[in-house]
Design brief:
The longest helix is centred in the first third of the chain and has 23 residues. Helices cover 62% and strands 10% of the residues. It has one domain. It is an alpha+beta fold and 123 residues long. The chain contains 4 helices and 4 strands. Strands 2-1-3-4 form a 4-stranded mixed beta sheet.
Amino acid sequence: MNKRIFAAFIAMFLVTAFAFAGASFGEGIKERMASRLPALEQLKAKGIIGENNQGYLEFRGSSREGQDLVNAENADRQQVYAYIAQKQGTTPELVGQRRAIQLAERADPGHWLQNAEGQWYQK
């Protein structure tokens, strides 16, 4: 059930983020992020990756399983955060930090998260 709620939240976030964007910017990113979500959720469930306090995915150990997916997701998140920051008159860093809080609140039990002080914990 939490995964459905999380997926719905991601969809709402993306729709909101791209509501005023041109189709060339928003649609491609939205589709890519949605297509990666199931694989990223599996990596989170295995404890291979976690959500850091800047709104990006980060590897938790030596395994780099799914590195291409993680890199692509983080690159798309960076573009989304920059776009939102421009529209809101703030910085991409602040947008990412705010997003990290949202992601932590909605994370499934057992997923790794990083608190504001940089310490990792499992929800």
